[in-house]
Amino acid sequence: MALEPPPAARAELEAALAPLRPDWPELRWAASERWHVTLAFLGEVDDAVRERLPVRLERAAARYPRLTLSFGRAGAFPSPRRARVLCAHVSGEHQALAGLTALAASVAAGARRAGAPADDEGRRFRPHVTVARSRHAADLSPLVRALGEFSGAAWTADHVHLVRSYTGPLPRYDTLASWPLRA
Known about the structure:
The chain has helices at residues 7-17, 47-62, 94-114, 141-146, and strands at residues 2-3, 28-29, 37-38, 67-77, 83-91, 128-138, 155-157, 159-166, 172-180. By secondary structure, it is an alpha+beta fold. The strands form three sheets. Strands 2-6-5-4-7 form a five-stranded antiparallel beta sheet. It has a two-stranded antiparallel ribbon with strand order 1-3. Strands 8-9 form a two-stranded antiparallel ribbon.
């Protein structure tokens, strides 16, 4: 389950990353059209559970208002000096970020009730978009510093999306269903 940033927000972040990419050819840079903010990662879900998900996720989405968010400074997981993931954190007013955290917990609970516990359940929710990955732990501190002051324009998250991911040499994501957040 995820939020999909609008094209303008993705383009703004892409413009900040573009001049940095040539110096980091060893990273696998994610295409901006695949960027999303993961609310809960479910892993493999069988057909019976997938049929029960919509009603739960629709209820969860309907409880929360639209959120005004933006992309912010860069970060790296598990740490900048031993990173496997480069990300842009999601920023917003305190109330929006608290709402985002509550929304993530609610969709994860809905998935659990449908029979699909989130693989990332129990981990602290850190809203971000993954922009690049490294096959091996790498020191991405220079990238994190270079993007440390980035602050994108505000955008509105207005739908929760059920997304299916396909891994492999050309990973892709397909949106299976979407539910609106409250206006």
